[in-house]
Amino acid sequence: MQRSGGSGAAIVSEIRSLARPLATDADLDGLAERLGGERFVCIGEASHGTHEYYRWRARLSRRLIEEHGFSWIGVEGDWPDCWRINRWVRGQADQDLDVYALLARFERWPTWMWANRDVADFLAWLRERNLSLPEQERTGFYGLDVYSLWDSLREVLAWLEANVPEAVPAAMQAWRCFIPYREDPHQYAWGTRLVPASCEADVVGLLVEVRRHTIDRTGDAVFDAVQNAEVAAGAEHYYRIMVRGDRESWNIRDRHMADTIDRLALHHGPESKGLIWEHNTHVGDARATDMARDRMLNVGQLVRERHANDGVGLVGFAGHRGSVLAAAAWGTPERVLQVPTARAGSHEDLLHHALGRDAVLIFGPDRSGPWLSAWLGHRAIGVVYQPQHEAGNYVPTRMGGRYDALLWLEHTTALRPLHHEQRPQEPELETEPTGF
């Protein structure tokens, strides 16, 4: 890891000048006020399995929704699964279910990313708040991701059957193209690698057909149908490129998520304000990491580039030590794993020695100081984590370019899942995010 030219004392001084204690909701006052005027606020997490990251993200989100009018949340989850949550929290469907039964419907590994107590508590609060408000003022909850190829195809076909039955035969052409692959996107991807034929034309044709039949229609159901068609087209592209083993599949996925953010903003109207929940690796601007060297981009970068005039805030998380919920290998049951103390010379190591307590750090316009401009390792833990290979989990990062604020936690604990992960009946092949 490369250390900046600034002295250790100067770095410690800068960190301490930016930090404020983080213990209660009141300690978020300055950050909530700083972010309240933005139209898009992306809030990260340094792992997918840490209770404190989820809890503080939820607390900050509640403040922004209640005090600053944020009207929708986009998360690193599948569109069909999160659409069911959206309907539930807005009082539109499944009102006979409690939040635990609702989250039990998540089936894609790792289910604990969303089926956990912190998410359950937040969604229960959001539904209760929504039901006290008129329909048009209720906050939505949406999935930004690209993985749900078959589920999204089913949703599109169901909408066409109910609303545009004459378009179903054309749509079935896309479905039939995928049938030989038995709902296994990896089998499809490898099939296209071995034989120069794909379902790309069929699924793009389906998207064009859906767009044609919805151009003069409005409403949530129409928006859902169009988005599912977009997901199907994006997923086909993602899986087909993923098997090449290069980094372009990452860019396809993050562009899809950024495009979905744009569609959500358009759907909710020009005055709407959105929260984005994703891993730091998606939220923190890629141009301030070594991802840029590999020509990789991410959601944080794209939202900044597209919406600078609307106002964008990027918030990261970091922690020093503790425990995390993760898997030893892709598709295997979750385990509580110990997170060792941060590596010497990393951002986390400097924050620990400078502060020694939980803190919120808000970055001002001048990011040229010795810490904010330093290129140092910043820990990122994915759904797969092997502490013995800890050195590979640090992303070279210029903190002042990657985020606009950082929540720092000295000691963190593992998420509490609502149920234990079962081994998939079919092989669960690796996509992203991984162990970074």
Count of β-strands:
11
Distance between the termini: 16 Å
Helix count from the secondary structure assignment: 16
Write the H/E string, N to C.
HEHEHEHHHEHHHHHHEHHEEHEEEHE
The helix fraction, in percent, is 40-55%
Helix/strand structural class: alpha/beta
Radius of gyration: 22 Å
* Low-confidence parts: none
Mean pLDDT: 92
Beta fraction of the residues? 5-15%
- Multimeric organization: single chain
CA-based shape: globular
Query: Major sheet: size, sense and barrel closure?
Result: 9 strands, mixed
Q: What's the short story on this structure?
A:
With 436 residues, this protein is an alpha/beta fold. It has 16 helices and eleven strands. Helix 9 crosses helix 11 (220-242).
Give your account of this protein's structure:
The protein has 436 residues and is α/β, with parallel strands linked by helices. Helix content is 43%, strand content 14%. It is built from 16 helices and eleven strands. The strands form two sheets. Strands 1, 2, 3, 4, 5, 6, 7, 8 and 11 form a nine-stranded mixed beta sheet that branches. Strands 9-10 form a two-stranded antiparallel ribbon.
Key features?
single chain, 436 residues, globular, two-stranded antiparallel ribbon, alpha/beta, 9-stranded mixed β-sheet, 14% strand, 16 helices
Topology overview:
Layout: H1 8-18, E1 19-21, H2 29-35, E2 40-43, H3 51-68, E3 72-75, H4 79-89, H5 99-103, H6 117-131, E4 140-143, H7 149-163, H8 168-178, H9 185-194, H10 200-214, H11 220-242, H12 248-268, E5 274-277, H13 280-283, H14 299-307, E6 312-326, E7 335-339, H15 347-355, E8 359-362, E9 375-379, E10 394-398, H16 399-402, E11 405-412
Parallel strand pairs: 2-5, 2-6, 3-4, 3-5, 6-11
Antiparallel strand pairs: 1-8, 6-7, 8-11, 9-10
Helix pairs in contact: 1-15, 3-6, 7-8, 7-11, 8-10, 9-11, 10-11, 11-12, 12-14
